[in-house]
Amino acid sequence: MDISDLTKKMDGFVHTKGWHLSGSSRPQTPRNLAISLSLESNEVLEHFQWDETIKDRNELANELADVALYLFQLASVAGVDLEKAILNKLEINAARDWD
Predict the structure, then answer these.
(1) Mean pLDDT of the chain
(2) Crossing angle of helices 82-94/3-17, nearest 10°?
(3) CB 44 within 8 A of CB 63
(4) Which residue, among 39, 32, 41, has the nearest Cα to 73 in the 3D structure?
C-alpha cells in the first residue's frame, strides 16, 4: 500500500462519516486539517514530555497514525501530490549542507 492508497482510505473514511458535506461538524477545510495535524503532533510530544523512553509503543503508534492521516487528508484537500512533494523535498535536502 502506498501514499495514494492510504489517502483513498482516509477519504473513504471521511465520506463515510459525512465530514465532506457542507454543514458538517468536522468540515474538511485546509485550515481545520492543519490545526488538527498540529494538535495530533503535539499529542506525540506528550509521550516524551518528562522522559526519553517510550512507555507505550502502541499508544505512540496510534498518535503517529493520527498525524499521518491528517497529513494525507490535508494534502488531498489542498491538491498537493504528497508523494511527489516528499520526493522533491528529499532532492532539495540532498543538495543542502548540514552542519
Answers:
(1) 95
(2) 140
(3) yes
(4) 32
Rg (CA), the chain: 16
Largest CA distance in the chain: 49
Residues 6+ apart with CB under 8 A from 20: 14, 28
Q: What pTM was computed for the model?
A: 0.89
Quick: pLDDT tens for 3-43: 999 999 999 999 999 998 889 999 999 999 999 999 999 99
- Please name which of 43, 95, 91 lies closest in space to residue 67, comparing C-alpha atoms: 43
* Closest C-alpha to 85, from 75, 70, 77: 75
Per-residue CA distances from 65 to 22, 23, 24, 60, 61 (Å): 26, 27, 23, 9, 6
* DSSP states of 33-87: HHHHHHHHHHHHHHTTSS-SS-S-HHHHHHHHHHHHHHHHHHHHHHT--HHHHHH
The grid cell for 95 is 543538495
